[in-house]
Specification:
43% helix; 5 strands; single chain; Rossmann fold; 5-stranded parallel sheet; alpha/beta; 180 residues
Length: 180
């Protein structure tokens, strides 16, 4: 089943204008954050340059392992156990790509030092060819991570987009006229 992408032109324009290494999207569950970044990436790059992973809850080593598996076509096949190793490996990527990590708060909940590690990587080691997009449904946590002036990732994102629910008339039209 193919679902038509609708009603997110202003968000797509913000994403397209953004030229920073880090982009952040947050909003409640089921508002279309993932569909939005997938559509953005589809418009910007070929499918083989877009990499997506949905974070899982669990130990740091399990999360890193899952992320490596999801990004398998981008990263060499090696066994990693922590965020320092993962970010060092990501630094070696030479191709232009978009890396999307959904449910970023799951990772931070398990590894509270991840925002400061990510800050260091963004400031010193992130290759210019990588556009990292972080998504999250925990609006309070995403706000605390990216919009709190006392946190490491404050003002590190070139664009922070609060994805809100679509208007009821648009939602009603979409639900009655899906593309199959």
């Amino acid at each position: 089943m193919h679902i038509e992408f609708i009603n997110r032109t202003s968000e797509l324009e913000k994403l397209a204008r953004n030229r920073s290494k880090l982009t952040v999207l947050f909003g409640r569950r089921r508002v279309g954050k993932t569909a939005l970044v997938m559509e953005f990436a589809r418009q910007q790059l070929s499918a083989d340059a877009v990499f997506y992973s949905q974070a899982i809850e669990g130990a740091e080593s399990l999360q890193v392992s899952q992320l490596c598996a999801d990004l398998g076509d981008l990263l060499p096949s090696v066994t990693l156990t922590n965020w320092v190793e993962f970010l060092a490996l990501l630094t070696t990527v030479r191709r232009k790509c978009v890396v999307m990590i959904d449910e970023f708060p799951y990772l931070v909940r398990t590894s509270p030092s991840l925002p400061s590690r990510l800050q260091k990587w963004l400031d010193h080691d992130c290759p210019a060819n990588i556009n990292l997009i972080l998504l999250g449904s925990s609006q309070t946590m995403m706000h605390d991570i990216f919009l709190n002036g006392r946190t490491p990732l404050f003002e590190r994102a070139g664009e922070i987009i609060h994805v809100k629910p679509m208007g009821s008339s648009c939602r009603r039209n979409y639900l009655t006229n899906p593309i199959i």
